[in-house]
Design a protein that fits this description.
Blueprint (H helix, E strand, L loop, with lengths): L1 E5 L39 E5 L4 E5 L3 H4 L5 E5 L1 E3 L3 E6 L9 E9 L4 E7 L9 E3 L5 E7 L6 E6 L6 H8 L26 E4 L11 H9 L3 E7 L3 H4 L15 E5 L1 H12 L4 E4 L1 H10 L4 E5 L14 E5 L6 H10 L8
Length: 339
């Protein structure tokens, strides 16, 4: 189920210490309530609409009527790369080696990547991981923030690393999803994905179809794009008791000049700025609605003063996640949304 919410224009109560306690963002999530296969067609997913006062249960195809002509929808056009690799640790006493799983996080150079590896304790500096077709990675650094490894890759031939990933990498699905083996990996890309670089999908956008985008345009709802390459900053769990002590891992993002101009024009004409997903929310708020290119470490939680967004389309989020804290900030820390 997906949610659309208007930001309430309310005099919110002052924050309590409990609003910064990570335990306040915990809830029971039964595994059987997590869908293992996507809805078909995409836009038949259920949609919960909340305007701060009234609640409505709809389907995603109803979104055009939930918005108004003159509103601006802002999408994240990042594209998920096949960032998961499987290899073995090279070991002189064990020709088979230890199985190693690698999740690429961020390109540091054309041949060097920051990555999460399992089992990480078995990969100190100087270790080598051997993959198929002559691909090898050496551990050349350890990142103290992410506890990940800096890997220097080498491979035969002169083709770029992106081509290597296409041949050897797999789609890095979340650990709580086990789809059938024959499911098309493109189903976990948005239909407007253009800029390769994410290691997870901006999931709120997965429910849009080309026909729905056309229907939104026909209703006079404009569309613009930003890019945030989803990485560890988005999905890393909060491990501190006080959420204000959590350190966000930086993620690369861009607000093109055309999108900044569209935001300004929409504002001038009285329209609303509606973000499709928490990654769009963070990008626009980090850039304050202006043209921007760089990294953001912005973490949004109750007490944050919103500057750009008037509406937010988002999926439900995992317990104790920074995404849940962002939505709590948007609605108000003690907003009661009946289901």
């Amino acid at each position: 189920m997906t949610q659309f919410a208007d930001r309430p224009d309310l005099n919110l109560p002052s924050l309590a210490a409990s609003d910064f306690d990570v335990a306040a963002y915990d809830y029971e999530l039964p595994p059987e309530r997590i869908a293992q296969v996507p809805c078909e067609p995409r836009d038949r997913a259920r949609l919960l609409i909340w305007d701060g006062t009234d609640l409505a249960h709809r389907h995603f195809t109803d979104l055009p009527m939930a918005l108004r002509p003159g509103d601006l929808l802002v999408f994240n056009d990042t594209r998920v790369i096949p960032a998961r690799l499987y290899g073995r640790k090279r070991h002189a006493q064990d020709p088979q080696g230890i199985p190693i799983e690698v999740l690429l996080l961020e390109a540091l150079s054309p041949t060097r990547w920051l990555a999460l590896v399992k089992p990480g304790k078995r990969l100190p500096l100087g270790s080598e991981i051997v993959f198929a077709a002559g691909l090898v990675a050496a551990v050349v650094g350890v990142d103290p923030v992410t506890r990940g490894r800096e890997l220097e890759f080498a491979w035969p031939g002169d083709h770029p690393f992106e081509a290597v990933l296409v041949e050897q990498g797999t789609m890095p699905l979340p650990p709580y999803i086990s789809p059938p083996a024959d499911l098309d990996p493109e189903r976990y890309q948005t239909v407007y994905a253009r800029q390769p670089g994410a290691v997870a999908a901006p999931t709120a956008g997965l429910h849009f179809t080309e026909s729905l985008l056309q229907a939104l345009g026909d209703r006079g709802i404009d569309q613009a794009f930003v890019t945030l390459h989803v990485g560890l900053g988005t999905f890393r769990p909060v491990e501190t008791a006080d959420i204000r002590q959590h350190t966000m891992h930086a993620e690369w993002c861009e607000v093109p000049a055309a999108t900044a101009a569209a935001i300004a024009q929409t504002r001038a004409q009285g329209g609303r700025i509606v973000g499709v997903g928490t990654t769009v929310a963070r990008t626009l708020e980090a850039a304050k609605g202006q043209a921007f290119q760089g990294k953001t470490e912005l973490m949004i939680y109750p007490g944050y003063t919103w500057q750009v967004l008037d509406g937010l389309i988002t999926n439900f989020h995992l317990p104790k996640s920074t995404l849940l804290m962002l939505v709590s900030s948007f609605l108000g820390p003690r907003a009661a949304v009946p289901c």
